[in-house]
Amino acid sequence: MIDLLAQSPFDLSTERRLVIIADWLPPDFGAVGQYMLMRARSLAERGHEVTLLGLSSKEASRVQSHIGKGSLTEIRLAARPVPRGSLAGRLAWTIRTDLRLVFGAFDRLRQADGILFTGSPPFLIHFLVPLKPFWKGRLVYRITDFHPECLIAAQERPSLGLQALLALTNFWRRRVDAFEVLGEDQLRRLRATGVDAARIALVRDGSPVSFPPNCQGDPLPADLIGHCVLLYSGNYGIAHEVETVAEGYHRHHREGTGRVRLWLSASGAGTEELVRRFTQEKLPFHRSAPVPLERLPGLLRAPHAHLVTLKDRFVGYVMPSKIYACLESGRPLIFVGSAESDVDLLARTSGVRYWRTSCGDPAMFASALEELADSVCRAGTAAG
């Protein structure tokens, strides 16, 4: 499990009162919120007075507790789900939500010795940095995803409006006190925007769960028993490679041995596209909902191997945080993505059996599936 105390950049002697801002907090599903809650608890144990501000799909709440030498106040604002249907709707939701978060904790922000905000929800930088004269504490930006770069990368044609927004975002970035990035690829991207390297710290997420020696995998769904099982877990969104996986999986079942079964314990646009295509092509697969954090170790120990994907144009803008828990599980890994991504760096140095497939090379992915099935047959291992 991640050692958050060792990674904390905050000084207890000078920055006792901290405010952390994220989006969806547990029990809502969201990797950023899960990591920030862990971070907040660790900082409280260290002696800080921490306020964690985020969103809830249920109801608004405020809970204060004493943890270790410090305290933690969790403030959840009730919010509707992000409207995924249109870009305009998402931007309107984001602006409204950012304003609610900033002004919902305005007094605490003014009193804080340090403020840590994330890339989720997007564009908080456009509200926090202009108001910087009101904050006495250091402003630290933990870039989880780059915005608006992710919006730009998702578009087929360049947008003058988004380019103007990017220029304004870079203007504000150069006025943030310090940054945390999730990987070396993100560090390179951030330095390219003009941010001084001296203000950037590499602070990896790490696995949010641990795998004790006696940790057993969950039982496999009935239709996966007897097959080589490849699991994709978590969010399968716009940044994740779909076409290479879909076409490579098709080749594996139509031209290869078809021994691998893909298990999608996932949500997101990529999941829906794979389900649509596999159903239309009558390819075998299994789909289930993402599991809560406490059930994650059992899920990740259930399959023979894990699948992680990332489109080339999102490298350095997005870091799939699931990679840490997947590697910690000890299961082999197939990565569909670029060697420039920190996913490849982490996997190559992890010690687990690892295959990387380039985006746009379905034959290479189909070959990796065959090699995975061969290795499982040779080892005689059983999933679950």
Question: In words, what does this structure look like?
Answer:
The chain is of the alpha/beta class. It has two domains: 4-202, Rossmann fold, CATH 3.40.50.2000; 222-377, Rossmann fold (3-Layer(aba) Sandwich), CATH 3.40.50.2000. 36% of the residues lie in helices and 22% in strands. It contains 14 helices and 14 strands. It has an eight-stranded mixed sheet. Strands 11-10-9-12-13-14 form a six-stranded parallel sheet, with helices on both faces. Helix 10 links the parallel strand 10 (260-267) and strand 11 (285-288). The longest helix is centred in the N-terminal third of the chain and has 18 residues, at 87-104. The protein is globular and about 65 Å long. It starts with a helix and ends in a 5-residue tail after the last helix. The mean pLDDT is 93.
